Amino acid sequence: MNLQVHKDLIALSNAKVKNIDKMNDGAKRVNYESTMHMSSYLVALVARDFEYIEGTTINGTTRVRVYTVKGHAKRGTFGLEGGIAVVNYLSKYLNMKYPLTKMGMLSAPVFEYGAMENTELLIYNRHTLLFGAITTDIRGKMKGIALIVAHEVAHQLFGNMISMDWWNQLWLKEGFSSYF
């Protein structure tokens, strides 16, 4: 799969970037590696002038990034640290190597829902991922970010990699993701 976008945009998808071809018309073609099999509702494609902060899991095998509109990346530090902590916790608790090599956490400027667990590219409403300067309940805000990040990261295993057969089994993926 590939996306052709303006050269100044960051193009995101579920997959890792394989290579980028510069086009003559001021665009670029971003070519992606193949992904694991996934349900169609988990596919994500986004292009915008993002900036990001990043870290890696404790064993260094999973790169985690928080993407934001320009000027807001530092507000994603708590979410980034939380995402890394959840991956580390699940790996230890389940006694397994976390199977994904990247995890993008996107703060969408406009997103109707709290968050969506797209495989390897989690999309959050900006209010549910970023820590803002204007809040009277800092502890409550931190708890809210931590809970939604933990829930969406847990979905990478429970609901995305191990999926339900049909929508009447939604309680399985939501139950396990809420538990962890």
Spatial shape = globular
Report, as a whole number of angstroms, the end-to-end distance.
33 Å
Number of domains: 1
> SSE string, helix = H, strand = E?
EEEEEEEHEEEHHH
Q: Look at the structure and give the CATH class.
A: Mainly Alpha
Overall average residue pLDDT: 89
Total number of strands: 10
Chain oligomer state: single chain
Within the CATH hierarchy, at the fold level, what is the topology?
Answer: Neutral Protease, domain 2
- Provide the spatial order of strands within the biggest beta sheet: 6-7-8-10-9
Largest sheet: 5 strands, mixed
Domain Peptidase M1 membrane alanine aminopeptidase: 79-180
GO cellular component, one term: membrane
Protein name: Peptidase_M1 domain-containing protein
Organism: Parastrongyloides trichosuri
Describe the structure.
It is a single chain. This protein has 180 residues and is α+β, with helices and mostly antiparallel strands. The protein has one domain (48-179): Orthogonal Bundle (Neutral Protease, domain 2), CATH 1.10.390. Helix content is 27%, strand content 29%. The protein is built from four helices and ten strands; from the N terminus they run E-E-E-E-E-E-E-H-E-E-E-H-H-H. The strands form three sheets. The chain has a five-stranded mixed sheet. Strand 3 and strand 4 (27-32) form a beta hairpin. Helix 1 packs across helix 3 and helix 3 (138-155) crosses helix 4 (170-179). The mean pLDDT is 89.
